[in-house]
Structures are given as C-alpha cells and as structure tokens.
Design goal:
Layout lengths: L2 H14 L12 E4 L17 E6 L3 E7 H8 L5 H24 L3 H14 L6 H11 L1
Parallel strand pairs: 1-3
Antiparallel strand pairs: 2-3
Helix pairs in contact: 1-3, 4-5
Length: 137
Amino acid sequence: MTIDRAQEMLEQMVNDLPEVIFNELNGGVLLLPESKRSPEARADDLFIMGEYVVRHDMGRMVKIYYGSFVKLYGENAPDELWEKELRHTLHHELTHHLEHLAGENDLEVEDDIRMYLYHNYMDMSQAEEIMKQLKKK
C-alpha cells in the first residue's frame, strides 16, 4: 500500500462519516508518512497508529501514522487489511475527539488499561472485560 493509496482510502472513510463528527476538529485528519514508536514500548513491538491531538495554538486534529502501519503490516499486506486497520484507527481517534467534546474519557481509560496489561505481559483482550466491570461500579 503506497501512502497515496492509503490517503485515498482515508479520505473516502472520512467522506463516508456524518459531518457532525468533525465539528471542532479544525485541524482535520492528517496522514503522516512517519512511524511513531510508543515511548512505552519494550522493544520494536508497540507503535502509535494514530493520535487525537488538542493544542491551544493549533486546535484539534487526528494524526494517522502511515509509517507505523508499514512497520506492523508491511506495504504488501492485502488492501483489505489496510482498510480495516485504517478504519479502526480513524474511528478510535474520532471517538477520543467526541468523548473530549462531551467531557468523557472512557476510551482513554480503556487505552490506559491496555498499556497496563502490556507492561505486565498480560492478555490485551482482557481490557474489554475490565471496562465492563468498571462500568458496573
């Protein structure tokens, strides 16, 4: 998958979503060529796929890191995999945006749980169950 083709896919995904989702996202959705290794990575095993960024001087934006996708999936991975993972990352970051606007942080808490599991060599799939248990309280 070239960066140009990934950009086309991402633009189509953005265009397919309701416009209201992008309210106050004045920086838009950016596809950046670089990879971004997580500062919390134990090795070359944890990359940041996307980020929701709020900056007082630049506003709100979503950054998607093309290079991180290349590191994890390779440029020759099937288009279907690229599309699935790009869509997942876009939706994840837009959920952060919408929660931020609503004063909520459920997804941020879930991300923190996933990092805790990662750091403790635990099964990452446990995050959803932990979130369910927290919501019951």
